[in-house]
Amino acid sequence: MPSVTYVQSTGVEYRIDANEGQSLMEAAVGNLVPGIVGDCGGACACATCHVYVEPEWLERAGPITANEEAMLDVVIDRRENSRLACQLKASAALDGIVLRVPESQV
Amino acid sequence: MEPDQIQTLMAAFDHTSEAQMRDPHPMYRAFRTQCPVGRSEQHGGFFVVSSYELVKTVFDDYARFSSTEGVGIPPHPYKMLPIDLDPPQQTKFRRVLNPRFTVESVSALAPKVEAKVHELIDAFIERGHADFAAQLVRPLLPAIVLPLLGVPMSDQPQMSAWIEYLTRGRANDLAGVAKAGEQIGAYLMGLVAARRQQPPIDDIMGLLLSSEIDGKPLSDGEIFRVLLIILFGGLDTTSAVMLEALLHLSRNPVDARRLMSGELDWARAIEEFVRYASPIQGLRRTVSEATVLGGQVLVPGDWVFGLHGSANRDPAVFKDADRCVLDRTPNPHLGFGSGAHICLGRNLARLEIRILLQTVLHRIPDYTTPSDFDPEYLAGEARGMKSLPVRFTPGRRRANVRSTEGVA
């Protein structure tokens, strides 16, 4: 199972094992990781699963679709490594990925 | 059912018909199994989507199924925000509003909800009978929502009376309902203008007055359109779930006992009540690009009505879908909607429902509904019980509480 680490703005880390193919939003919500809301259930429509991908993982996280790009425009404090966790799928390629959770999600 | 019969049934489908919506589930079952995307010829014609999978697609895929042309059938007289927008524009409004509706934010309202429920129960508990709809559930919600919006105490009875009229009058006095709607509109517009001249107050109105979207403050009209959906989004819908839950618990006292003993989890039970009641039976989207849904060709401008009420009874997702199973898990229901527009007030609704049910079961544990009670429902996008007559062993009012009988 691919492992994913969510780092809170406080520095607290949540390391979980995600199911292959599951989105990193679902993996976080299912494991009660604070700060990942996922209001829309993964439809890329609410921008409440915003994360910062650690730079070394950014390329492997894959391209940003037009939909995700539009939603990233409305997140709080977008940075170069901003992604929506609902658009990242757990896979062997992302095993060990580190995501930082913004201070505020809503 | 023969294919031409289902077409006939589908062509006549009208969610605003009280006769059809009294028990829509046999009809929904026929739609789901034989015609998951069919065509109603009512209200100018629209496609009816009934299976869980396709309903979810309609509400998740805002690129194909847009809210910008409105979400009601027939269309509502006022455009409302942000329900009549698509992401990402819609998301900007939700960003402003979301912090007020988190679990943490709404929990601050718990004492107020509890006090109001007690007050309403005090007004009838000595009599041994009541209509839970008219005397408990319907008066409760404006008392919570109106102060949240910034309606001053002195105006709340008048607003509550208009709202009560809107709900009750829908069945028989459309002209009166339209008038009450206009009065509420004029009142809220006046309130927005007045609040601009006053020192800031920390409520939703104050939040809207001080917020910016795309670098610009919201206009009076925008604020009015947001207030409207918050006001109406949380009244009929929450009432519908409360009343369905109260009826279920009177008919299934074992469930009531298991809830009160802690054997059943309240949070899980409330999700099941929401699924089972499906307070919003369906909403519209408008097709924005040529597409195919469930084998049906759709063209831009077509109206599509996704039936949450049917999706929530789809046996492909819910075992024993027509039974209210309070420990159902998982429960991926669409009772609060799905996708970008998922109910803004769902955490407040959950809180209100839990406090109401706990307080009723605590103070009026032996309430019963007549054995031949056959509920009638108000119909529309929202579907809710008109009345819920109950009898019970008379109880005592709480000490030092004044009656509020007569409050609308």
Automatic annotation (TrEMBL), chain A:
Gene3D superfamilies listed in its UniProt record: 3.10.20.30
Q: State the CDD domains in the record.
A: fer2
Query: Which cofactors?
Result: [2Fe-2S] cluster
Domain (2Fe-2S ferredoxin-type) spans 2-105
Alphabetical keyword list? 2Fe-2S, Iron, Iron-sulfur, Metal-binding
InterPro entries for the chain? 2Fe-2S_ferredoxin-like_sf, 2Fe-2S_ferredoxin-type, Adrenodoxin-like, Adrenodoxin_Fe-S_BS, Beta-grasp_dom_sf
Question: Pfam families recorded for this chain?
Answer: Fer2 (PF00111)
Instruction: Show the SUPFAM superfamilies listed in the entry.
Output: 2Fe-2S ferredoxin-like
Q: Which family does it belong to?
A: Belongs to the adrenodoxin/putidaredoxin family.
* Name of this chain's protein: 2Fe-2S iron-sulfur cluster-binding protein
| Species annotation | Sinimarinibacterium thermocellulolyticum
TrEMBL record, chain B:
Which Pfam family, any one of them, does this sequence belong to? Answer: p450
Q: Which organism is it from?
A: Sinimarinibacterium thermocellulolyticum
Please tell me whether the keyword Disulfide bond is annotated for this protein.
Answer: no
InterPro entries attached to this UniProt entry: Cyt_P450 (IPR001128), Cyt_P450_B (IPR002397), Cyt_P450_CS (IPR017972), Cyt_P450_sf (IPR036396)
* Family the entry assigns: Belongs to the cytochrome P450 family.
Name of the protein this chain belongs to: Cytochrome P450
- From which residue to which does the signal peptide run? none
Instruction: For this UniProt record, give its keywords in alphabetical order, as a comma-separated list.
Output: Heme, Iron, Metal-binding, Monooxygenase, Oxidoreductase
Please give the Gene3D superfamilies that the UniProt record associates with this protein: Cytochrome P450
Could you tell me the superkingdom of the organism this chain comes from? Bacteria
Is DNA-binding among the key words of this record? no
